[in-house]
Amino acid sequence: MDAFRLQTVVAKDGEIALTGLPYRKGDTVEMILLGQPTSTSRRLPTARQLRQSSLIGLWKDRTELTDSADFARQLREQAQRRE
After folding, report:
1. How far apart are CA 34 and CA 38, in angstroms?
2. What share of the chain is helix, strand, coil (3-state, %, to 5)?
3. How would DSSP label each residue in 25-46?
């Protein structure tokens, strides 16, 4: 099966107009629509942004946590067992 990529912008809710396709009357085609992320989509923070955030060192002053890596591992294991 050949693939033809065409990017377009939805101009009217629920409708897309496709023109200039390389197919002829009677050809059988399959359409798969994939939405593209927009500039307003939420982006993941960069490593620099994470280092500058308050997340790094969040548990440093917790006296009941002697090993924060072990505590984090336990939390992940508990989350995996949840239904």
Report:
1. 12
2. 25, 0, 75
3. TT--------PPPPTTSPPPPP
**Rounded to whole angstroms, how far apart are CA atoms 69 and 24?**
61
pTM for this prediction: 0.38
Mean pLDDT by 10 residues, the chain (83 residues): 82 88 91 79 80 83 82 90 77
Q: Any idea which residue has 């890596």 for tokens?
A: 69
Task: Give domain limits for the chain.
Answer: 47-81
Report the length, in residues, of the chain.
Answer: 83
User: In this predicted structure, what is the pLDDT of residue 39?
Assistant: 65
Structure token pair of residue 52: 């500058």
- Cβ–Cβ under 8 Å, residues 13 and 25: no
